[in-house]
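Please check the following for our workbook:

***
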Amino acid sequence: MIKTKQAVASIGLLEPTRERWLEFSMLSNIQGLIAGVDEVGRGALFGPVVAAAVILPDSALPKLMANEIKDSKKLSSSQRVRLAQQICALAIDWKIGFASTAEIDQMNILQATMLAMKRAVFKLKVQPALCVIDGNQLVKDLPLAQQTIIKGDERSLAIASASIVAKVWRDDLILRLASKYSMYDLERNKGYGSQRHLMALQQYGPSPLHRTSFRPCQMTVLSSPERVFTTQQDKTNHFRC
């Protein structure tokens, strides 16, 4: 791994900042490349669950710390976009994997999340020596060494990077879908269960991209003459998910 004292001194970082990240302690003795793996969208009502796998070179770590990288949920949208661009430019390799709403409904959200993670890792062109996985669940049938890290997006630079890349990718996807399904206020809620989203589900029912295995997507639709369908196909498929 990098010479931590030299790297920290070169950018004037305080010791507690360096010690926060496992790449400078627990993971520093790993021989070979490390892939950070994290997911976003697990609790959403609409759209896929998305995972990213990111392999960073040692030289990227102090640069990301200097830019105050952290868990994607603790960053503003503009901060996430800026950091995601930097991460992708610095990374040795990075890939996205996802599981569709149909797969979520078929196998449950936990298994779909693990599938998205596995797909992200399998897409990597560079094989890591170790995958560090956010949370406490190993990825089933992944033929690589794994280590789970609870709150990994707060403790590992590689996992935090994967969290940011996955979040930006998923948000961009949802924003592109928002105009087609405008009644659900996706531009603001990104598919999560905001009050306006829940009210729209009650009024219009689920779209083809809602997770009908999730209870809020099973609401009884209120009779209303003001229902809005964006396309004829949506009207035909309105109650099919």
DSSP finds eleven helices and five strands in the chain. Residues 1-15, 224-241 have pLDDT under 50 and may be disordered. Strands lie at 34-40, 49-55, 93-99, 130-134, 146-149. The two ends are 48 Å apart (CA to CA).
